[in-house]
Amino acid sequence: MQKLKYCVFIALTCLCPSLHAQNKQAKPISTDLFGVFFEDLSYSADGGLYAELIQNRSFEYSASDKREWHPLTAWEYTTQGFGYGTLSVESAQPLNTNNPHYVLLNIEEEGQQGIGLTNSGYDGIALKANEKYNFSVYINQLSAKPVSMQVQLRGKKDAVYATATFTTTGSGWKKYTATLTTDQTADSAKLVLLAKNKGKLGIDEVSLFPQKTYHNEQNGLRADLVEAIAGLQPKFMRFPGGCLVHGDGLGNMYRWKNTIGPVEERIQQRNIWNYHQSVGLGFYEYFRFCEDIGAKPLPVVSAGVSCQNSGGTWRIGGTGQKGLSMADMADYIQDVLDLIAYANAPVTSTWGAKRAAAGHPKPFNLQYVGIGNEDKQTADFRERFKMIYDVVKAKHPEITVIGTVGPSPSGEDYDLGWKFANQLAVPVVDEHFYEKPDWFLTNNARYDNYNRANSKVYIGEYASKGNALINAIAEAAFMTSIERNGDVVKMASYAPLLANTKHTSWNPNLIYFDNKGISPTVNYYVQQLFSANQGNLFYPDVVSFDGKTGKDLVLAASCVKDSKTGDIILKIVNAGPGAAVAKANLSAFKGLGNDASLQVLSGTPDQKNSMAEPGKVLPVASVIKTGALAAYTVPAYSLSVIRIKSKSK
Ligand code: AHR
């Protein structure tokens, strides 16, 4: 028998209380239990989900994003064929004041091929054969005569994959568009924009999108990543962060109003995770994304304070929290109210009209708003949180506010945060835990004795510090306890969701990707199995464990019913190295079918998926006789999800 490395702390036992009791009454549980949390971290948005292929498209990168960055990062001045001239970054006649920098290209001599600039994308531009790409650029023709332009997708050694041409049509900033079609699949192409005759041009907002974004939407999202997230069947999506929301100092606080409207007019900013936010994926796109994948939107706004680690090293210090001045709070609170209006107000209202102008007259049906993220529980925080909360509560009783109780599952901020939330009767608070697998196993009973009269819980961020099977199984064991306590735990989301393998600033994540593909982790499949098999009623004591249980076995189970289908769903987890026997007592359920679908995720504790082997550990589906569940052999290190169909539906 394989030695148990991970669970030696517990001479175990089954994590389900009162094993052999008869079926008790069903308990209604949250129907929004499992969702996702998206943060632009590790290039999740720019260079990831947001399908824009041009990096630094509006020449707004700067050293404040990253020390070595500047307005021409990812760009190169291109003179081939003996042309010459000058290229500089200017700000005298910008496209608009929110987008201050542009390139001034002065073509003194065009030579044989023209002169211009080349963008290398995010670590190269990945192209797919026979797909179409939408190119666009804003040009201000500053010389008298029109200038012939050529745009190309090129590969290594300047092999030309696609070409389009257009001619400028006079002074003033104008948008030019072209479609590029390539018969090449390439990993690291580049975009080359050349002026083919003498003249002077202002150039800005150079953009290239695949036509095949998710749902073919304009300013859209990368289809494979959205499909993977949609595959989780999340009931909600929390966005846009995390730490990103409260920001590294007050100036860096995320302001949703800066992220809507025409992309070239949005106000970009430094990403707290040490890169740049184009905010091309802004609040309109977030709401649309939620709607596309059937997830309820859960936007989070800062509680009027910046991150307590502002200006310092991550998780060290705790002295950097700054509060907005009281003079600024009224406007700030209005921003929060306007956010609710942007999502929900009729088209005849100011903010509903803006939503309609963006393309969505119907409301987005916002039900949840998060205020704050892991904030240090200072007097500054409390004062500002209460100001925002009181107004939202009074004006929008239909909105469920989610508060915050610090960065950890215990400790000073956690205790103070809970006390404060209970005083204010905040409907739900956001708990976070990044802990080892052992913690998830030993804390299985965490919510069993929570005071049901207090604020309810959203576990907004959790992960067991690894992407091996043992991590995923420990999380699965804990998730059975979330279902068991689905009356008090209203929602839960693993974190972080996405990471670009070339720019990963936080591990572990749920889905890794590069320019070409994705690799869902084993943890992803646990999330998917739970999320796709949620119920609205929890039944205690349906599954018990018997027989060859050894001291190293760590077993957990839950039983829920999905009343819409009538299906009974069992989740059975074995986090130990030996097989066990689970006994399902289904006698309380009438009209169940004879066959049940079974999905099993199992393997050795160290096994992982990777970009090289994305499908190494996958759930295996089969059919099992319902009668066989009276004695079901639970493999070592496994999650089994068993769905027993109701005969009547
Ligand atoms: O998920 C990554 C970070 O972890 C989040 O931004 C923050 O809320 C937490 O500390």
CATH superfamily of the largest domain: Glycosidases
* Global geometry: globular
As for the CATH topology of the largest domain, it is TIM Barrel
Low-confidence stretches: 1-14, 16-23
Largest sheet: 8 strands, parallel, barrel
DSSP helix count? 10
Q: Specify Rg, calculated over alpha carbons.
A: 27 Å
Number of DSSP E strands: 34
Q: Which hetero ligands occur in this complex?
A: alpha-L-arabinofuranose
Q: Give the DSSP E fraction (strand runs of 2 or more residues).
A: 25-35%
Name the average pLDDT: 94
* CA distance, first residue to last residue: 43 Å
Order of strands, main sheet, comes to: 2-14-17-18-19-20-21-22
Name the CATH architecture of the largest domain. Alpha-Beta Barrel
What is the top-level CATH class of the largest domain? Alpha Beta
Structural class: alpha+beta
Helix content estimate = 10-25%
